[in-house]
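Late entry, written up from scratch paper. The run itself happened at the end of the previous shift, but nothing got recorded in the book at the time, so transcribing now.
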Amino acid sequence: MSGTFGHIIRTARKEKELSQREMAKLIGVDYTYLSKLENDHAGYPPSEDVIHKLALHLNLNEEELRHLAGRITPDDEKVFQELVKKYKQMPVLLRRMRDEPDFAQKLLRETTQSESKEKES
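Output as recorded:
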C-alpha cells in the first residue's frame, strides 16, 4: 500500500464501485465523516472498529491501514501501558516530546546512536 490513509480507502472504495454514502452505511458512519477520512481531514484517527470495517469491506490489510491512520497496534498499547506503570513520569516525557519536536528529535537521535554503539560492542 502506498499513499495516505484517505487516498488508499478512496481508491479501494471506487474500485468496488461504491458511493461514499453506500460505504458509510456499510461501516456505520455518516458519509460526511467518510469524506473527511478520504480527504485526510478528520482531525483524529478513526476508531479501531471503523478501521476494521474499512479493511473488511475494501479487502485491505488492517494492520497497514491502522498504521496509515496513525493508530498504534494492540501490542504497542500494551508496551505503553507497562511503561506508564513502571515510569510514572512517562506521560510528562511524551507531552514534552509532543510540544517540543526538537527535543524529541534529539532524544530519538541519541537513542539510535546509543543502540548502534551497543551493537558494535
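The chain has a mean pLDDT of 90.
(Scratch paper discarded after transcription.)
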